[in-house]
Write a structure and sequence with these properties.
elongated, alpha+beta, Alpha-Beta Plaits, 15% strand, 4 strands, 47% helix, 2 domains
Length: 202
C-alpha cells in the first residue's frame, strides 16, 4: 500500500537525518573528501526532534501492522485473495526498524570506523615538545572527535592528539622540529570544523 511505503520511507529518512552530522565524517574518510561532509553539523540541534519523529513514525507503523483487523478489512481481503508484497510485510518493517535503530545510535560507535593512530616519535630534546589547545566549533559526536584526531595524526611529529566534542577542543602534543601550530591548524581546518582559538599550554 502506498500509505505504508510512505511511513517506512519517512522512518528511514528521519533516522538517517538524525545521525547525518555523525555519519558524514565517516563518509568523508571513505570518500577522501575530508571537509565536505562536516557541513552537516548544523543538523545537530534538530537531532532530538528527528529522533522523536522517527520513533513516532515507527511506532505508528507497528501499530498499523499489529492491530487486529476489522471485519470489513477481512471481507475485503477475502475478495481480493492477494498475497501482501514484501514491502507490506512485518519482515520488511523489522528491517526498517533495525536500520533506524542503527542510524539513531550511530554517534555512540562512529569512532570505530577511524583507524587508530600509530605514532612512533623519538624525542631527542624535551625542549622541542610543545602542547597546544585548539578550540573547535562544529564537533557533535565521537565520530567528529575521531575525524579531527585522524587528520592531525597524519602529520609528522604528532605525539598525542585528543579531541573532545563535549569540551569543543583538541589538545595536541607535538615535536616542533617536525611540525608546528600552523600545520596542525590547517589539518583541523581541512575537516571543515572551525577553529575558534589556539592556546599554547607549554
Amino acid at each position: 500500500m502506498k500509505g505504508q511505503k510512505t511511513i517506512f520511507l519517512t522512518g528511514i529518512i528521519t533516522a538517517f537525518a538524525a545521525s547525518l552530522c555523525c555519519i558524514a565524517p565517516v563518509l568523508a574518510l571513505v570518500a577522501g573528501t575530508s571537509g565536505l561532509f562536516s557541513t552537516f553539523s548544523w543538523l545537530e540541534p534538530f537531532r532530538p526532534w528527528l529522533i522523536g519523529l522517527t520513533l513516532v513514525v515507527l511506532s505508528f507503523a507497528w501499530y498499523k501492522k499489529l492491530k487486529p483487523k476489522e471485519t470489513d478489512d477481512i471481507d475485503c481481503e477475502c475478495e481480493k485473495d492477494e498475497k501482501p508484497s514484501f514491502y507490506q510485510s512485518k519482515k520488511f518493517l523489522g528491517i526498517v526498524t533495525v536500520f533506524s535503530v542503527l542510524m539513531l545510535t550511530f554517534p555512540s560507535y562512529a569512532d570505530i570506523f577511524f583507524p587508530k593512530p600509530h605514532n612512533e616519535i623519538t624525542v631527542v630534546d624535551r625542549n622541542n615538545i610543545q602542547q597546544a589547545e585548539f578550540k573547535i566549533h562544529g564537533m557533535t559526536c565521537t565520530g567528529c572527535e575521531a575525524h579531527v584526531e585522524h587528520e592531525i595524526n597524519q602529520l609528522n611529529g604528532i605525539i598525542t592528539a585528543e579531541a573532545s566534542y563535549e569540551d569543543g577542543n583538541a589538545i595536541v602534543e607535538f615535536d616542533q622540529t617536525f611540525t608546528n601550530i600552523d600545520s596542525i591548524k590547517s589539518a583541523i581546518s581541512n575537516t571543515g570544523y572551525k577553529i575558534v582559538s589556539i592556546t599554547k599550554m607549554k
